[in-house]
Amino acid sequence: MRISTQMMYQQNMRGITDSQSKWMAYGEQMSTGQRVNRPSDDPIAASQAVVLSQAQSQNNQFTLARSFATQKVSLEESVLDQVTKAVQSAQDKIVYSGNGSLSDDDRNSLATDLQGIRDQLVNLANSTDGNGRYIFAGYKTDAAAFNQATGVYEGGTTPISQQVDSARTMQISHTGSEVFESFTSNAALEPDGSAPETNLFKILDNVITALKTPVEGDQTKAEQLTKDIDKANRGLRNSLDNVLTVRADLGTKLNELDALDTLGSDRALGQTQQMSDLIDVDWNAAISSYTMQQAALQASYKAFSDMQGMSLFQLNK
């Protein structure tokens, strides 16, 4: 192979260019804090980082989904807490209405109080979230769940569900029918074997009508009133048991969401560490390599400077 001045010049320039490229690469690592800034830096690590980044994005999405679910479940629990207190208040008044010393006017006054509680319960059943969506209407969130006048459920039949983790889809709401028109499996039965009225609002409507009916001096009507009061007591007790069962389910879901949040946080921490191991710079190694490469580049500059103006004839002297 022929050795020429031009060839030596090209080799020195290539050495300088390579040294400068490596030196700048270490500088880029220190400026970005990342060892892998482009796929060519480490193809395997770069591909693994893409997969891991997708997993991180999915984990973040589930975190947001759980936040939405927690807000919705917490709101329903808050409303049902008020429903519980209202039903208990109605129970107290109905029990008191069975006092034989009360007059028709007294019972009429109690009926008025119960009407107020009944209207309050319908308003609670038609509660909305911060965006105006009815929380007990299933997927028909744009319309009231219950008819204010009749107390009939007009919402959707399917409760809202939300995927809150990769392998967990959770029902995050209950329909009004599940809450206000249902009894538990161990509900008290009617003594005569007849089908019980399960709609909470109709239970109250029936006893309100009964209390407004004058019974003084009419033994038959008085006996019927006693039966109506007893039936209302059973109905409200069954309704309250159902509401408390729904609240227990909500509490269980809130606990599970907390546990999933903890798991998601741990997962995010692990993913962050894995990503750091894949692409983040090793500062000790990078600083050391940067310094060494800088020295090598300076040496290359010096060698190239010394070679300038020299020829093979001068080197052979």
UniProtKB/TrEMBL annotation:
PANTHER family: FLAGELLAR HOOK-ASSOCIATED PROTEIN 3 (PTHR42792:SF1), FLAGELLIN (PTHR42792). Keywords: Bacterial flagellum, Cell projection, Cilium, Flagellum, Secreted. It comes from the Bacteria. GO terms for cellular component: bacterial-type flagellum hook; extracellular region. Coiled coil: none annotated. This is Flagellar hook-associated protein FlgL. Pfam families: Flagellin_N. The gene is flgL. Residues 3-141 form the Flagellin N-terminal domain. The keyword Secreted applies. Transmembrane segments: none annotated. Belongs to the bacterial flagellin family. It is found in: Bacterial flagellum; Secreted. GO terms for biological process: bacterial-type flagellum-dependent cell motility. GO terms for molecular function: structural molecule activity. InterPro entries: Flagell_FlgL, Flagellin, Flagellin_N.
